[in-house]
Write a structure and sequence with these properties.
single chain, alpha/beta, about 55% helix
Length: about 625
């Protein structure tokens, strides 16, 4: 049997999937001493599929040396080099394939993936689009293009590209997963979940899709589902660093610091230069009040990825909390707009962002951000902008409009209802409220000593005060004890039963200022202690913040944990005692008993994490002294 006959039999076996038989016969051809380009090529394909890529490279290169006019084979050799991690060699062979035949869609795609990984996004996009132009139904090219567009913040295009990939190949788990990621970026949580669910139905061992599913559960605050999904991803692929990191984030949210640290350490053992895990290690240090170690970890993350927004934002929180000169902290704080949860809040008014230039005579749209508490706190800088001569328009949470309009009568207040916002006439600039801090709160001593800046409805305030006092002159104390913050609410909140010593104070009346339905807890507490906490059914801060401001203004004193109630009370100038965890949010600074944001506040800090008993006892004693001094 001659060499060509042996090769013919080998090719028949190869096409039938009988790879061991094919391999044996290809080697017989080559052992015959001939330079057989086809046998070299097909044997190279087999050994590559077996994972023996070094031998595959040798065989494919020999094949191309004998018969170089095969662009598709040059592409295959590039793919082997890419699998070996030698991307420089891979690029050479992909480019040779394209030079030989510009219609090689696979070569354009492969070259684009390397350029994508190297951050050459414009070239990568061109490559993906060229591959699609050659082969319009090239599902993987559409899917990879979606990933690139998502990185560039072109989210609608990313979703469209990912959806096209799914339309072309509905049985591609990767395509469904990429569509889920694009949808998740835009906070379409249910649609994203369905995409990840379909991905794991197609491929039950798709660890990355389980990991992504866990992140949807996390954002839905479905902690058990998140833990189960992340754990499943790790079980399927113990080397998936992102899943270890994500599981650690959930444990951290639950206050399991050691469990979280172990997960982050596992992620870093797999990838020592993994920015999210480095930043999360820093967050644990920050929450445990090791601020210098926290900064070191955040900066390590930036050494790896200078554009990692999470680390910049975390640095801002440490610096704003600890440094009297707050300018660097405010600069770092602007990176929040690169984080997904903030980016979705960005408003575009079609004019430049104010850059700190002279605002006199300029019409500036100041828009609220984050939660109601932050909107109230940052509104404290509206008078600064007005004093500088600006014509100010405030866009805010709809429930704040009547309160803000009364408090700032020269300002136009509009409700945040449309996205993008309605066009405003003759507008010169816009700015998110938190970014004013760089110019108006650059140092701790730059905070003005305004006793208040919000003005409640005085008629309603007097009516409520009369109702609560019920004909007496008894002091009224407002209470708030719980936070629903999904990340740190557990750390800030204090169970109502723990307030008993304080609530046993005589000659005062306590009023419920806690948002949400508190009836069950209040009734149980009263049944056990005989102590009534007045609850006004007509006031619901979740629906009417203007009425709530009047209720807070009716108090002689507010005692509360850190939540919206405190911001409202401070902005109204109501004397308030704030119970803070050992490491509170940055706005309460470090070690201070007063608040530069709100002069009427007294800050009472935990001395040991989780120990409320000490400061509640001290606060109860202080309240009795306060009552006796009236």
């Amino acid at each position: 049997m001659d060499v060509d006959q042996i090769f013919g039999q080998a090719l028949d076996h190869h096409r039938a999937g009988r790879l061991p038989e094919a391999e044996n016969l290809y080697r017989r051809v080559l052992d015959a001493g001939t330079t057989h380009a086809e046998a070299l090529y097909y044997l190279g394909r087999i050994v590559s599929e077996q994972g023996n890529r070094s031998e595959a490279v040798e065989l494919l290169e020999r094949s191309l040396a004998v018969s170089p006019d095969h662009p598709e084979r040059a592409n295959n050799l590039g793919a082997v080099y890419q699998a070996l991690g030698d991307t420089d060699k891979a690029v050479q062979w992909f480019e040779m394939a394209i030079d030989g035949d510009d219609g090689q869609a696979e070569a354009h795609l492969n070259l684009a993936t390397i350029r994508h990984a190297r951050g050459k996004l414009a070239d990568a996009e061109a490559g993906y689009r060229r591959a699609i132009g050659i082969k319009p139904n090239f599902a993987i090219a559409h899917s990879d293009l979606s990933s690139l567009l998502r990185l560039q913040g072109r989210h609608d295009e990313a979703i469209a590209a990912a959806a096209r990939a799914v339309e072309i190949d509905a049985d591609s788990a990767k395509a469904h997963n990429n569509l889920g990621v694009a949808l998740h970026e835009q906070n379409h949580l249910m649609a994203a979940f369905q995409s990840f669910k379909r991905a794991v139905e197609i491929d039950p061992e798709y660890a990355e899709a389980y990991n992504n599913m866990g992140s949807v559960f996390r954002d839905e605050n479905h902690i058990d589902g998140a833990i189960a999904s992340y754990s499943k991803a790790i079980a399927l692929d113990p080397n998936l660093a992102d899943a270890h990191n994500n599981l650690g984030s959930i444990l951290q949210r639950q206050g399991d610091w050691e469990g979280a640290r172990g997960c982050f350490a596992a992620a870093l053992a797999l990838n020592p230069e993994f920015p999210p895990a480095l930043a999360n290690m820093g967050t644990i240090d920050h929450r445990r009040n090791n601020q210098s170690e926290a900064l070191a970890n955040f900066r390590k993350a930036l050494d790896v990825d200078p554009e990692f927004a999470e680390a910049h934002f975390n640095i801002s929180e440490v610096l704003l909390m600890t440094e009297p000169d707050m300018r660097e902290g405010w600069e770092e704080h602007r990176w929040r707009w690169r984080k997904r949860e903030f980016r979705l809040q960005w408003r575009d008014f079609g004019v430049p962002v104010w850059d700190g230039s002279d605002p006199a005579g300029k019409r500036i749209a100041l828009w609220g951000e984050q939660g109601v508490g932050e909107e109230i706190m940052y509104a404290g800088m509206v008078p600064d902008l007005l004093d500088a001569g600006a014509d100010v328009v405030v866009e805010c949470e709809p429930r704040l409009v009547p309160l803000f309009q009364r408090s700032f009568p020269s300002v136009v207040c509009i409700a945040r209802t449309l996205d993008p916002p309605e066009p405003l006439e003759a507008l010169d600039f816009h700015i998110p409220a938190g970014d004013l801090g760089l110019w108006y709160r650059p140092r701790a001593e730059a905070f003005p000593k305004r006793p208040s800046y919000l003005l409640a409805d005085q008629c309603l305030r007097d009516t409520l005060r009369s109702r609560y006092q019920d004909g007496s002159e008894t002091p009224i104390i407002g209470l708030s004890w719980h936070s629903n913050n999904p990340e740190i609410g557990w750390e800030k909140s204090v169970g109502l039963d723990d307030w008993r010593a304080l609530l046993e104070t005589e000659q005062v009346r306590f009023v419920d200022l806690q948002y949400g339905d508190t009836a069950v807890k209040r009734d149980a507490f009263q049944a056990e202690t005989g102590i009534e906490i007045i609850h006004d059914e007509e006031i619901d801060q979740l629906k009417d913040l203007d009425a709530f401001s009047a209720q807070v203004a009716a108090m002689d004193l507010v005692v509360s944990i850190s939540n919206t109630t405190v911001h409202m009370a401070g902005a109204l100038g109501v004397p308030t005692w704030v119970l803070l965890s050992e490491v509170p949010l940055w706005r309460w600074f470090q070690g201070r008993e007063d608040s530069p944001w709100y002069p009427s506040l007294r800050l009472i800090r935990q001395r040991q994490a989780g120990r409320w008993d000490e400061i509640l006892g001290e606060t109860a004693t202080a309240l009795k002294q306060w009552v006796s001094g009236i």
